[in-house]
Amino acid sequence: MEQLTVEMIWVMIMIGIAIFLFIVEWVRVDVVAIIMMVTLPLLHLVSPKEAFVGLSSNAVVSIIAVIIIGAGLDRTGVINKLVTPVLRIAGNSPSRIIICISATVATISSFMQNIGAAALFLPAIQRISKKQNIPLSRLLMPVGFCAILGGTVTLVGSSPLILLNDLLVPFNLKPFNLFDVTPIGLALVASGIACFILLGRFILPQGDDHEAKEGNDTASGEHAHGTEEMGDYYELSTPEDFSHYRDPLYVEDLRRRYLVNVIAITEPPDFKIISPSPDTEVRSGIDIVVYGHKKDVNRMAESEGMAVKEAIERFKSNLDSLNSGTVEAVIAPRSWLAGKTLADINFQDRYRITPLSIYRQEETYRVKLDDIRFQVGDVISLYGSWKRLKELQQEGGLLFSLPSDTDYMRPGKAVWAGLWLVTALVMIMGFKIQLSVSLMTGALGMILTNVLTIDEAYQSVDWRTIFLLAGLIPLGIATEKTGTAAWIATTVLDIIGTVSPIVLLTVIGILSTLFTLVISNVGATVLLVPLVVNMAIAAHADPRMAALVVGLATSNSFILPTHQVNALYMGPGHYRTIDFMKAGLLVSIVFIAVMIAMISFVYGV
Amino acid sequence: MAIITISRGSFSMGKSVAEKVAEKLNYGIISREVLLDASNHYNIPEIKLEKAIHDAPGILERYSHKKQEYISYIRSALVDKVVNDNIIYHGLAGHLLLKGISHVLKVRITANMESRISYVMKRDGISAHDAHALILENDNQRRKWTHSLYGQDPWDSSLYDLTIRIDKLSIDDAVNFICQTAKTDGFTTTEKSLQKIKDMALACHVKAALVHDFPDIGVTSEYGNVLIYLKPKDHVTSKLSKRLDEIRHRKGTIYNLEVHAGIPIPEDAV
Lengths: 605, 270
Description:
Chain A is α+β, with helices and mostly antiparallel strands. Chain A has 25 helices and ten strands.
C-alpha cells in the first residue's frame, strides 16, 4: 500500500473542513467552494492554474448554457402551453394527473436545471390543484421527486452528471454521451411515479383528512400540520360615535390585535379604498371588509363595537371574484424578495396588495408580517385585485397562478426556442460535438433570434451554481493528484476485503445517497468520484460504472428536504420533514435497486 | 387609580413612605411577597430569588443565565400582583420590571448620607465608619446589578417620574407629593394601559414558562396575541415547538402564538 504523505493528510483535512462547513452551513455552500478554490493553491496542493480550471471546464460552460436555454424556454411560455394539452390527456383522475404532470416535469427537467423546472411548474400545479380540487400536498411531492429524477435522464439533467465527464478526464476514461444514462433515468422516473401511484395513499399526507380534523382543533389549529383554511370575507360597519373617546384605531392595529386583515374600507364622504395601507385610520360611520376567521372577526366586532353585516353589500362589485381574489405566492429560488421583509420593500404601498399570512415550515405567521425576513419556499397569501397581482407577478420572484395566466411574454418566439434546443441536441447526438460547445450554440442561437436578450441571459445565470461547481473541481483534482483518493480506496478495500462488482456498486450508491443528503450533490460527486474510480480499479470492477453510480445516486436526495426542489415545495405543499422521510425512504430504496438493476442490465456489470 | 413603584436608596426611609402613601390612598402594598409568590409558584428557594434580584451577577453567572431566569419569575409574580391596579410596590427594581406601562408612577426616595448612617448605626449597633461602608457597598451592588442587567444607573433620575430626597423634605411631604402626582391625568389607568399590563402579564407567564430552557427569547403580547422572538441564528427546535404546544393548550388567555426568528427583539419584549 502507498505511503501516507503530508500532502495527503492536508487534502484529507481540507475535505474534512469542506464537509464540516457543508453540514454546519456557517457560510453558504458556494462560499465553501470558493474557500477550497483559494486555499488549495495556497497550500500547494494544486497549481494556481488547476485551482481555477473549473471555471473553464466543460461542466461549468455546459451548465451556463443549460441555464440560458432553460430561461429562453421559460420566457416563451412553451412550458405554460404544455400544461393545457397535458391536462386534457390526464382528465379528471388524480392518478393520471400525477402521472402526466410528473412525466412532463421529468422530461423538462432532463434538459433544464431541476429547480428551474420545479419552479416553472409550481404555479401550474397550484392551478390544477384548485381546478381539479386535489390537495396540493398530493401533487407536489410526486412532481418534485420527478423533477429531481428527471435530472438523471440525460447527461445535462443535473449538475453531478454534467460534472461527471470532467471528473473522468484525469483517469483517461471514456466520457459518457448525452443519452447514455437515458434508459436508467427513464426507469428511475417510472419507478418514482409508480411508487406514488401504487403506494401514494400510504406515503403521502392526505390533505383533505387533515383539514377535516383540524376543524375541531379550537385552541390554535394553525400550527398543526396541513393546509390551513384561511378564512372568509366579512363586511362590517362602525357606528357614528366609533372614534369618539378612544385613541385612533388603524388598519394595522386590527391585524395585530385580532388577526383580521382589512382588505377594503370606505373613507368619508364616499371613497372606496381596496387594500388600504396599514396606517389607514378606521373612522366613524364607515364600512370595512375584512378577511379572516369568523371567531376573530366576531371577537373584533365585539370588543371594538362594530356591526357584522349579513353579507358583503357595499363592496359587492369590487370584491367580485372576477376582479380580485387571494393567491398563495411562493418565494422563488433566487428571488429578489429572499432576505427582505415586506417593510423593507414598502410592499403594501407599492403594490396595493394585502398580505394575509406567511407560511413557513409548519408555522403560519399572521402577526407583524412586515418584520418577517423571507426565505426561498415561503408561502405568502395575498389579497388584491387581479390587475395588481398581475403587476406583482410580472416583477418576478414570486411564483403563483392567476386566473388569467394565458398570455405569454414572447409566445411568438416559442418556435425559435424549440428549434435551438433541437439544434443543440442534434449537434451532440448527430455530430458528436462536445456538450459545452453544442449547448452554448443553442444558447447563443436563442440570443441571436431574440428569444431572450443577452442581458436577460446573463441575469438568468446563477453564480452560486457556477462557483459551487468550479470551486469544488480543484478539490477533486487535489484528491486525485496527491494520491489521497487511491490511498483511501485501497485502505477501505483492505478493510472490507474482496467484494463482487454489484455489491461494490450498491455500497457506492448507498454512500453517495448518504453524502448527498448532508453535503450538496455537487460536493458529494466531486469527493466521491475519484475515490470510487480508484476503488473500482483496485477491486477489478468497471471504474466508469462506479463513477456513473455516483453521478446518478447523488440525485437520490429525497429523505430530507435538503434538495433545492424539496425545499421549494415544502412550504406550498405544507409538508413536514417526516413526510419527506416517509415517502423519501421508499423512493430512495427503490432508486438504488432500480439503478443497480438497470446498470447491470444495460451495461452488463 | 395607579400603580406606584417606590425605589429607594438603601436605608432611605422608602418603606415608611410607601406605607404612609398606601394608607392615605387606601392602596394595597407589596414588597417581599413578590419573592414569596415567585418562590412558591416556580418552586425556587426564596433566598436564590432574593440573591438574583439583589446582588450583581458574578463572572460565571453572566454566562449561566440563572439570574435572568430568576428575574423572569420575579417579574411574572410582580406583574400578576399589580395587574389589578391600586397598589404600591416598594421592593427592588419595580421601575425596571414594570417599564412601559403608562399608569405606573415610578418614585425614587433618597435620603442624605448622615441620616442613612445614623439609621444603620442605630439599627445594627455598629460604628459610623462601618455603617458608611455598608451603605456604600449596598449602593454599589444595586448600581452593578442595574447596570449589568439593564445597562442603566439606578441613580439616573430620568428613570423615575418623581425623585424625592428626604432631608429638608419630610416623609410626610414626600407622601403628599406622591399622592398628588398619582392623581394626575398622566397616571390614570386607561383601557389601553390596562390592556397593556394584562398583555405584559401574559408575556411574562410565557417567558417564565420557557426561560429555563430558552433564556435568550423575547416575548411580547398584544391583545392576547403572543409573539416569541428568537435570536437571529436560532430556529424553532422540536423541543421548543413541543413546549409551545403545551403553552397553547394550557393558558386560556392566549389567543394566538407565533415564533418570529431572525429579527431584532423589540425593546418592549419581556
